[in-house]
Write a structure and sequence with these properties.
The chain has 799 residues and is α+β, with helices and mostly antiparallel strands. Helices cover 17% and strands 29% of the residues. It has a 6-stranded antiparallel sheet, with helices on one face. Strand 20 (240-244) and strand 21 form a beta hairpin. The longest helix has 18 residues, at 673-690. The chain is globular, with a radius of gyration of 27 Å.
């Protein structure tokens, strides 16, 4: 039944504020679209600087600065200083420097005179930057990245990091907000809201999770409506607001308790569950439905100087409420107010009372006239611009001897257990590799979805012909529907499309759940991939590229990528191509599970997981959950054993768990940085084999600090790695450094350090292409042999 407690849960403020939806609310502003021919249509970030300029972040066009006094636009992209042409996050710090988060090259910082780029070896822990925010108390700059949180201290000019190892529920987050006391709130991508206090320097983290995949049955309630957080805001009154994929949530007690309000599409989602709405459920009455948000999916939050709260949506434009008067102010969309598109990605109040909206498809818009009412005070920019350009932040320093020994102490405490049973764990994402996967993913075994053409997949790797894979869709579909094998581009030079091992080019192909044939409020069908995997410990990687994500409803793709080991008998396995089979029930019942989220993936992303398979009777099933988006696509599923990674000899490499220390079990800590670096690398690779679960999930920070030390060149152009290779006597030094680079996905630097012919024996087309087109690519081919020797002679130590 529909719960009678709706009116008694303290929702009066929001209900009254939204009541105008049904009762003739005040008209909203009219909008003018600015400079779309230059900025493009896909706006993903908006910010002010201290001079009052507006910064507009785009996908594929770089970043633009608008000077309202001169009415002048200036573009910055990869040709004139920006690290790449995507600006997903923008913030201005206390000194007036503008920080821009990129797709896969870290953060670019502008001091008013020049740009400087900071990749993972120079600053942030992850290459993709999702959000940048300044703490109001110490003015430190925080970044949400693809591998954890990064904090830059203005006082000490140092970089520090927070990951799962420090208590975060996951490494990927979409939003960061602070309250006036400097307490932090982190909106994770699919594990709720993480919180920490400034008083203990953010050492202890707590998490407010939401429900699992099943959304609440009611339009309002207590807690979070989902664990998928898109935006966060702390209002001037101290209320913490969270924009989620299932409505708006808020807390008035610093995150201890939460309430939520859903969108008007909540009821359709209840009806769209497998089997329909549960028995006895009733839809909310019209007078309640009229008070709900325009839709569930909240993309962005903003508060203007008068306290007006703005919410952006994926399909329904925006809404603004005034908490002070408890009245709904207005709701706006493309049809009513002159917007070019209803996908509002970013909102920026302005000092002249003419707010800005960034849309994903319709460009950037500004109110045509100054607004009246509570915004009349205007929003003054914080701080004053400096007359001289501020110095650019210092690059991250290599670890000192004391820090190296501290890490050795920490690593000495890592246990080396003997795990039993199945294990699945989500890992950091890889936004850097894109479609160039050869020698990076899938040398052991892989499925290139639909790459074979004619409804066929293509197996890769030296175990590709021995391991089984089945793609299928869930049962919440029409009878007879099946998984689509879709080839979008037979040939392409787009680097985000996967390499085609049949001809050496690239091809865009994928599995598709045919979700476009169903309403977006249907829970399904979803794409499933079931893999037969021999016992062992693996990296399982799935590639996603929203190749047409700038077109129509394709922009709405946003998935949960769930991983579960489950038993499937042979009869069920060989019939997985049909929908509605019993295997979906088995997936739902599986108690060992892990999940990640993929959205805004026009740039291409590898979702990565650690998987332990204990015996021959275990199947690993991946569900790419449609998550109420347009349809579900995935391009590949790849496996690589931990400790036997691609590019290092395949099955002839050292078996996992048998690598011993190169130095013995020394009891005293090193007294020289060189010795400490060698010991640290040795210990990391011992743990890789002795405790793969810990290594795959928590080694990122240690490895980045280590390679930062090894590869940083001095004024003479020399680096520690080069010196240690000559002096240390460390067996397999160069391959071990390459392994470390491999495990933080710095594949380009890895290949400069150590070249292995192994990938060319597995992916022979690349060797054959490079050797002049010869069809005989094995060791008996002299051209191929010369090519290999040339590559092996080209070793260098990159910075």
């Amino acid at each position: 039944m529909y719960p009678p407690r709706f009116r008694s849960l303290g929702f009066a403020l929001i209900l009254v504020a939204l009541a105008g939806l049904a009762d003739g609310q005040q008209g909203g502003p009219r909008w003018e679209v600015l400079n779309r021919d230059v900025t493009g249509g896909f706006i993903v970030a908006l910010a002010h600087d201290l001079s009052g300029n507006i910064w507009v972040g785009t996908e594929d066009k770089g970043v633009f600065r608008y000077d309202p006094k001169a009415n002048q636009w200036t573009q910055f992209n990869s040709k004139n200083g920006l690290a790449d042409d995507n600006a997903y996050a923008i913030a201005c710090d206390k000194l007036g420097r503008v920080w821009v988060g990129t797709l896969n090259k870290g953060v670019s910082i502008f001091n008013g005179e020049k740009w400087q780029n900071y990749d993972v070896l120079d600053g942030p822990i992850g290459e993709r930057i999702f959000a940048i925010t300044q703490c109001p108390t110490d003015c430190d700059v925080w970044m949400a990245t693809s591998a954890g949180l990064t904090r830059y201290s203005l006082k000490t000019e140092s970089w520090s990091y927070y990951t799962r190892a420090d208590g975060l529920p996951e490494d990927q987050a979409n939003a960061i907000a602070f309250d006036p006391q400097g307490n932090i709130y982190v909106g994770t991508q699919c594990h709720g809201i993480a919180m920490a206090k400034a008083a203990d320097d953010y050492k202890k983290w707590t998490t407010m999770p939401g429900p699992g995949v099943q959304l609440p049955l009611t339009p309002n309630g207590v807690g979070l409506p989902t664990s998928l957080i898109n935006a966060l805001l702390v209002s001037r009154e101290g209320t913490v607001f969270a924009g989620t994929s299932a409505g708006l949530a808020w807390s008035k007690d610093k995150g201890k308790t939460w309430n939520y309000l859903r969108g008007r599409d909540y009821a359709a989602k209840v009806k769209g569950r497998w089997g329909g709405a549960p028995a006895g459920w009733q839809e909310a009455p019209k007078q309640v439905m009229d008070t709900l948000l325009p839709e569930d999916y909240v993309t962005s939050l903003a508060e203007d100087d008068g306290g007006l709260l703005w919410l952006g949506f994926r399909q329904q434009g925006y809404v603004a409420i005034d908490p002070k008067t408890s009245k709904h102010v207005f709701e706006g969309n493309k049809k009513a107010d002159g917007l070019a598109d209803d996908y509002v990605f970013a909102i920026l109040p302005s000092a002249d009372n003419r707010p800005w909206l960034g849309t994903y498809g319709g460009g950037v818009a500004r109110a045509k006239a100054a607004m009246k009412g509570p915004t009349a005070k205007g929003a003054a920019t914080a701080g004053k611009p400096s007359e001289k350009p501020a110095p650019l932040p210092k690059v991250a320093k290599p670890p000192t001897l004391a820090e190296l020994n501290g890490m050795l102490d920490e690593l000495a405490k890592v246990p080396t257990p003997k795990p039993t049973g199945s294990i699945v764990r989500e890992l950091t994402d890889d936004w850097r590799t894109q479609g160039t996967y050869v020698d990076r993913y899938g040398r052991f075994a892989g499925t290139l979805c639909a790459m074979g053409g004619g409804g066929n997949d293509l197996g890769t790797g030296y175990m590709g012909s021995f391991y089984g894979r089945r793609g299928w869709i869930g049962r919440n579909c029409t009878k007879g529907d099946r998984l689509r094998h879709w080839v979008h581009w037979i040939e392409t030079d787009n680097p985000r499309s996967l390499q085609n091992p049949l001809d050496g080019g690239r091809k865009q192909a994928e599995w598709d759940d045919h979700g476009e044939a169903y309403p977006m409020t249907l829970a399904g069908p979803h794409v499933y991939g079931s893999l037969t995997v021999p016992p062992g410990e693996y990296y399982l990687s799935a590639y996603f590229f929203n190749k047409d994500g700038h077109d129509g409803s394709n922009r709405y793709r946003d998935y949960l990528v769930e991983m579960r080991p489950m038993p499937i008998n042979a009869k069920v396995y060989f019939n997985l191509g049909a929908a509605g089979i019993d295997a979906e029930d088995g997936f739902e019942r599986a108690t060992i599970r892990s999940q990640g989220r993929i959205s805004t993936f026009w740039g291409g992303c590898w979702k990565r997981y650690y998987v332990r398979v204990p015996d021959e009777n275990t199947y690993i099933t991946v569900r790419v959950n449609r998550n109420y988006s347009f349809n579900t696509i995935v391009s590949s599923l790849f496996l690589d054993p931990v400790g036997e990674l691609c590019g290092f000899g395949g099955p002839a490499d050292e078996p996992a768990a048998k690598r011993g220390t190169r130095f013995g079990e020394e009891q005293t800590l090193p007294t020289k940085p060189d010795d400490a670096a060698l010991r640290l690398m040795d210990r990391m690779l011992v743990l890789r084999d002795a405790n793969p679960e810990w290594y795959t999930r928590q080694s990122q920070r240690y490895l980045l600090l280590l390679v930062r030390l090894l590869l940083r060149k001095d004024a003479a152009g020399d680096c520690l790695a080069g010196r240690l290779e000559k002096q240390s006597g460390y067996r397999d030094f160069r391959p071990d450094v390459a392994r470390c680079l491999n495990d933080v996905q710095l594949f380009g630097k890895r290949d400069k350090v150590y070249f292995s012919e192994a990938n060319y024996l597995s992916f022979g087309w690349q060797g054959r292409t490079a050797a002049g087109g010869s069809e005989n690519w094995n060791w008996n081919n002299q051209e191929y042999r010369k090519f290999i020797e040339k590559q092996q002679a080209a070793h260098t130590w990159p910075e």
